[in-house]
C-alpha cells in the first residue's frame, strides 16, 4: 500500500474552502471520471491530467492546460469548479435521496481542482519555496489563469510581491507570538499589514494589468474578445463598425488596435495574420472561421511566393515567437500540407525565434495557392503565375512566368527592380505583358 499524496489549496475561492488535506488514491483519475459521469449534466470525458507513472507514488503532476490558460473544468465543461459545486448542492437539496452521490461528486471536484492549483504552481519556474505564499497572497480562478499565461513572463514583479508578502507575514506571525505589545510593536503591526496589502496589490496589478484601464477601454477589450470568439479573425475597423451603439463614441479603430496590441492577451486576443487584424485564442488554439482567408492574410503580410533561379517554385509563411509558432502549427494542421521549420535565428540580434511553413512540392503549392487565391489582396498575380508555372511545359513561357513573379516581388525596391530589368534586357511594360492570359 502506497502513502497517500497530501495536496493543499488556498482558500480564496468563492463559496468553498479548498485548503483541507486531501488523499489521492492511485486510481484517482478513473474514480473522478466515473463519479462525474454519473451526474446528469456531464458527459464522460477524459480527465485533463496526465501523471508520471503513479501519481500517488511520485507526488508529481505534469501540467496540461488549455492553450488559452483555462483551467481543467473551464476547458472541459465550460464552467468553473465553484459553479459546478453550487449546482450540485442545489440538486442535493431537491433530491435528498442521492445526497451521498452528490457529496461524492463534490469531493471529486475539489480533488481535481486542488490538483489543478498544484500543477499551476509547479509550472512556474520561480515558485520553488514560495508555494505557500502563492496560495495565500491571492489565488482565485482568474489569478490562476493569469499565472498560467503570464507567470514566467512577469516573474520579476510577481516574485517581488511574494517576497514582500512573506516578509509582512513573518512580522505578523512574530507579533502574534508575543503576549504583550509595546508602542513599537503596535507600529510594526500597522506597517506589516500595510506591507501585506501593498504586496497583494502588486500581485493583482501584475497579473491583471487590464484592471488599470478606464472602464470604457476595458469594455471595448471585452467586446472585441467576445466578437472575435463568435466571428473569428477581424480587423479593428470592422470590430468598431460592429460595435456601433455598444462601444464608446470616442473609440476609434486606431485606439482599439493600440489597446488590443497592449492588453489583448489579457482577454485572449492576439495579433492576426494581416495588418491591424486580431484573433482570439480558445481552448484548443486560435479561433479561425475561414482558414483560407486567414492563411491568405499571412501570405500577403509575412509570406512569399517565388521561383528560384534554378526554377524551383516555393511558397513560405513566416511568423515569430511562441504565438507565431502556434499560428504555423495550426495552419499546417488545417491545410494538411507544408513543412514546418521552427526556432530559426535569421539574424544575430534576433530576439524571438522565427518559424517558417514551407510549401515546395507541386501538390503542396497547388493546395495552398488554389485555397488562398480568392482571398489574396497583394500577391494574387504571383499566385496565378506560379500555378501556371508548375503546369507549363514550354520552357520559354516558364522563363516569362519566372521573370513576372520575380519582378513583381521586387518592384517596390527600385534599385533591385532596375537591376533585374537590366539583367534580362527587358522593360517593365514587357514584363507586364507576361501576365496576359493568367
Can you describe this structure?
The structure is a single chain. Helix 8 (155-176) runs antiparallel to helix 9. The chain contains 19 helices and twelve strands. With 438 residues, the chain is of the alpha+beta class. Residues 1-33 and 38-62 have low confidence and may be disordered. The strands form four sheets. Strands 5, 6, 7 and 8 form a four-stranded antiparallel β-sheet that branches. It has a four-stranded antiparallel β-sheet with strand order 9-10-12-11. The protein has a two-stranded antiparallel sheet with strand order 1-2. The chain is elongated and about 100 Å long.
In terms of topology, how is this protein built?
Elements: E1 5-7, E2 22-24, H1 28-37, E3 50-51, H2 55-58, E4 61-62, H3 72-77, H4 81-94, H5 99-122, H6 131-137, H7 141-150, H8 155-176, H9 183-207, H10 215-231, E5 234-235, H11 236-242, H12 253-263, E6 269-271, E7 277-282, E8 285-286, H13 291-302, E9 303-307, E10 313-320, H14 321-335, E11 339-344, E12 354-359, H15 362-372, H16 380-389, H17 395-410, H18 414-424, H19 428-433
Antiparallel strand pairs: 1-2, 3-4, 5-7, 6-7, 7-8, 9-10, 10-12, 11-12
Helix pairs in contact: 1-5, 4-5, 8-9, 11-12, 15-16, 16-17, 17-18
Amino acid at each position: 500500500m502506497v502513502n497517500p499524496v497530501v495536496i493543499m489549496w488556498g482558500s480564496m475561492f468563492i463559496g468553498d474552502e479548498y485548503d483541507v488535506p486531501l488523499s489521492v488514491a492511485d486510481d484517482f483519475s478513473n474514480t473522478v471520471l466515473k463519479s462525474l459521469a454519473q451526474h446528469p449534466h456531464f458527459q464522460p470525458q477524459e480527465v485533463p491530467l496526465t501523471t508520471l507513472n503513479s501519481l500517488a507514488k511520485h507526488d508529481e503532476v505534469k501540467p496540461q492546460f488549455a492553450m488559452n490558460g483555462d483551467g481543467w473544468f473551464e476547458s472541459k465543461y465550460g464552467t468553473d469548479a465553484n459553479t459546478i459545486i453550487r449546482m450540485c448542492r442545489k440538486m442535493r437539496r431537491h433530491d435528498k435521496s442521492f445526497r451521498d452521490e452528490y457529496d461524492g461528486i463534490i469531493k471529486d471536484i475539489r480533488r481535481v481542482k486542488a490538483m489543478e492549483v498544484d500543477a499551476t504552481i509547479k509550472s512556474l519556474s520561480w515558485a520553488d519555496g514560495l508555494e505557500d505564499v502563492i496560495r495565500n497572497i491571492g489565488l482565485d480562478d482568474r489569478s490562476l489563469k493569469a499565472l498560467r499565461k503570464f507567470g514566467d513572463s512577469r516573474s520579476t514583479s510577481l516574485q517581488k510581491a511574494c517576497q514582500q508578502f512573506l516578509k509582512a507575514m513573518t512580522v505578523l506571525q512574530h507579533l502574534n507570538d508575543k503576549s504583550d505589545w509595546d508602542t513599537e510593536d503596535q507600529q510594526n503591526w500597522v506597517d506589516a499589514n500595510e506591507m501585506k496589502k501593498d504586496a497583494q496589490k502588486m500581485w493583482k496589478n501584475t497579473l491583471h494589468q487590464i484592471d488599470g484601464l478606464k472602464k470604457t477601454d476595458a469594455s471595448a477589450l471585452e467586446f472585441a474578445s467576445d466578437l472575435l470568439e463568435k466571428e473569428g479573425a477581424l480587423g479593428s475597423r470592422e470590430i468598431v463598425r460592429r460595435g456601433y451603439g455598444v462601444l464608446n463614441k470616442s473609440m476609434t479603430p486606431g485606439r482599439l488596435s493600440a489597446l488590443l496590441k497592449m492588453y489583448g492577451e489579457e482577454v485572449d486576443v492576439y495579433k492576426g495574420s494581416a495588418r491591424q487584424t486580431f484573433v482570439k485564442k480558445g481552448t484548443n488554439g486560435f479561433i479561425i472561421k475561414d482558414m483560407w482567408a486567414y492563411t491568405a492574410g499571412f501570405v500577403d503580410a509575412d509570406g512569399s511566393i517565388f521561383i528560384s533561379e534554378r526554377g524551383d517554385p516555393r511558397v513560405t509563411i513566416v511568423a515569430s515567437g511562441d504565438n507565431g509558432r502556434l499560428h504555423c502549427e495550426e495552419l499546417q494542421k488545417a491545410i494538411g500540407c507544408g513543412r514546418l521549420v521552427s526556432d530559426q535565428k535569421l539574424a544575430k540580434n534576433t530576439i524571438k525565434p522565427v518559424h517558417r511553413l514551407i510549401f515546395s512540392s507541386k501538390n503542396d503549392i497547388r493546395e495552398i495557392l488554389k485555397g488562398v487565391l480568392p482571398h489574396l489582396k497583394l500577391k494574387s498575380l504571383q499566385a496565378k503565375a506560379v500555378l501556371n508555372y508548375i503546369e507549363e511545359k514550354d520552357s520559354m513561357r516558364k522563363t516569362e512566368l519566372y521573370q513576372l513573379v520575380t519582378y513583381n516581388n521586387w518592384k517596390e525596391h527600385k534599385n533591385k527592380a532596375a537591376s533585374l530589368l537590366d539583367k534580362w534586357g527587358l522593360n517593365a511594360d514587357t514584363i507586364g505583358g507576361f501576365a496576359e492570359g493568367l
